Amino acid sequence: MNLTDEQKKIGQDNFRRVAGDLIQTNPDRRDFLEQVTLASAVGAAGFGAAYWGYGNKLDDRLRVGVIGTGDEGNVLIGALNPKVIEVKAIADIRPYSVHRAFYGDTYSPSSLAARPGLCSVYDYADRTAAEKEIDVYTDYNDLLERDDIEAVIIALPLWLHHEAAVRAMRAGKHVLTEKLMAWDVAQCKEMARVAKETGLLLATGHQRHYSVLYDNAVDTIRRGLIGDIHHIRAQWHRGNLPGNDSWQPPLPTEMLGPAEISKAESAAKRAGGDAGLRAWRDEHRLVRELAAWQRERDKPTTSAAKKEEWDLKIAQKRAQLEDISVDATEYGYEAGTLDGGYERSAMEELIRWRIWNRTGGGLMAELGSHQLDASGIFISSQFGEKQKVNPLSVVAVGGRHIFPHDRDADDHVYASYEYPGKGYFEDNNPKQGKLADPNKKVVVSYSSINGNGFGGYGEVVLGTKGTLILEREQDVMLYAGSKVDTKVKVDAKNGLVDSYETGGGYSPAAQAVTQAVSRGYTEEIEHWAVCIRDKAPAETLHCHPKVALADAVIALTTNVAIAENRRIEFDPAWFDPESDAVPAGRTPVKASAVKA
Where do the TM regions start and end (predicted)? Predict the structure, then answer.
């Protein structure tokens, strides 16, 4: 990461060319990729489905309810394929989330691209037209009572995943829940047990399992081109600072007109001076933004097209303010006082759930789980097909280093993990479990911080012969040895070697590897739906309960290591859904005794 544009281009070209060359040695993949490329299917809907070997259209679409339509729920709505999924209902307690579920997030072009809304995805004229086919519920239990809904997508705050998933499965619904699987390991195991008992498919949204880019990176590792992995460096750095934190969105207040705002600001300044005025403006940020946007919209010089844009934004802002009507305590959210004396309302816990340990899992659950999942995929690829290798130990530190006492989740975490490397097990067979050389380990270093986004997010995989860099789930770069400024080619005997030979462009197969960049959201939902229709076994899912449990164990054990300031060795029983062993907290109960 932090490479020059020229170094990035060299690495991207290297990866395309080498991946394309490898495909030529695999007739099935070569024929498929050349076929879809020549048919102009690359980059179009359906490439991921064709790549992973499932259909991207169902004659009988899966009838789904979406539970939780906030930030991540809206991303999942934007990823739906209307040829596979028929949305019958949505459920959310916040008017703001329901509004965005239909119209998308109009605050910026980038947010609208990620969250286009149901009207756009399903080509409804407006919410009124959409609601003729899609029902809206506040209580998701009403949605679960519907016989015509076969499955649910759950994108609620983390602390509610277990409750909603268990209730859904008890109601006979298949489930796809956002990551992390659940708030603690006991809950994860109980969800896995209920899924097994009911025979329903439970998937978890770690989308890197459905990324074509990541799969081709894994293929490069599996073939030994970068040699033996001995270190992975991963990070997710963000520029969030006090007063400008994406996990601390503004809270709703009563709507006020321009005259009322001016009067209230004057009163706040008389009472508290400039500090009092700043505090009032911060508390009423949404009200002030709404007034400012309305003024811009009403200017005589504003074009008709611009007025339409402002109308969409203003409607969304009004919906955000309507959240004040929600009684958060009715849904289990609590007011509280932090150690530093900060008073948190139940509404704040609802809207800013990621920054509270009671409702979220902090940086490791929200961000680190993705990248430790990816690291595990890379390391496991050295042990043969469909092997899942778990870490041996973790040591970690963290804290609230830049934010005041307005949260209890850490804003910085740093962790190091020991994984078994190639040669650690006898016959390179993890299932056999006999050690060959305990020194053959891979260390994964991870950091997730706020306050400085330099380097963004991604993973650097260092092998004995070369290096793979994966950046922002969009680019993969490949380098021989430790150099980042030379072209590379594949030598049948020695793997990657430096070369200034550039060849004559890309084959169709090489182009296909990176032209259809998808983060995997669409593919994970499509495959889940197809598996349900095909009555496929749970293990057919790329992120079935045992895989999702492992990701949760790693993230949640890291939180324990930080809290207790100690090194923790992972117990293999923690990764077994049938075992009652957990790294912390209560032990799980049998499937028959699991209650939501």
Answer: none
